[in-house]
Amino acid sequence: AWRASLPDVYRTTEGERRIVELPDGSRASLDAATVLRVRYDGGRRRLWLDEGRAKFSVAKDPLRPFSVAADGKLVVATGTTFSVEKLPGQMRVVLYEGHVAVLDGEGGRGRPPPTVKVDGAPAERLLTPDHELVASTTSDTTVVSPTDPSRAASWENGQLVFQDEPMDLAVERVNRYAREKLRIADPAVGRLKISGVFTSGDTRAFVDGVTAVLPVRAEPSPGETVLRIDRGQNDRGQKKISGAGESSAD
Fold it and tell me: Which of 37, 127, 217, 227 is the most buried (most CB within 10 A)?
């Protein structure tokens, strides 16, 4: 039996990815700039994603649910492969195989996580493989849609793949690998959409690609690069970026 104890804390820094072997044989793949807390006690396997993103390959054990809490949601599985990601204003879950239930409430703050039955779970959402759930952390909005599993897991292979991604979320992901951060100074930049494939950690290629195809200008500043709307280029047609700095029209 697992002993009750304080959670183990696993961290990655900017640009670092890490594989963590858990006590039950499960595995957690941590993206850059991630903080994951793990506590196994009694019949429960409890984890908390405090920052970043992690992909979990869960050892099958129907008697000990595997739960990951993030931003007021609880993702519960018994044996499956899925990822959880925290982004500004939202939490994302991608299911690769098996099944997970996504419920309201983290099961923390002194109360146990809800009991979930695999069949007929009292869940807000029961995901099926190759689907992504996006839950707002500022409203009750939850959207489930199909996803390309290879694209969703591309970060494990050192790539950042965006498909009509809002710039504010794309910059958040780029910054996980950047020592010199990007900062969006104009909200209009954050609402622009970007599509493309970039190498993790190559911030310059991302900036060059964005400024080539979007009405955005980059301003160097001590310790960061500031992104602003280029008012003189608002008529520029938006293009899709493929590779480092290369673009092709939609």
Answer: 227
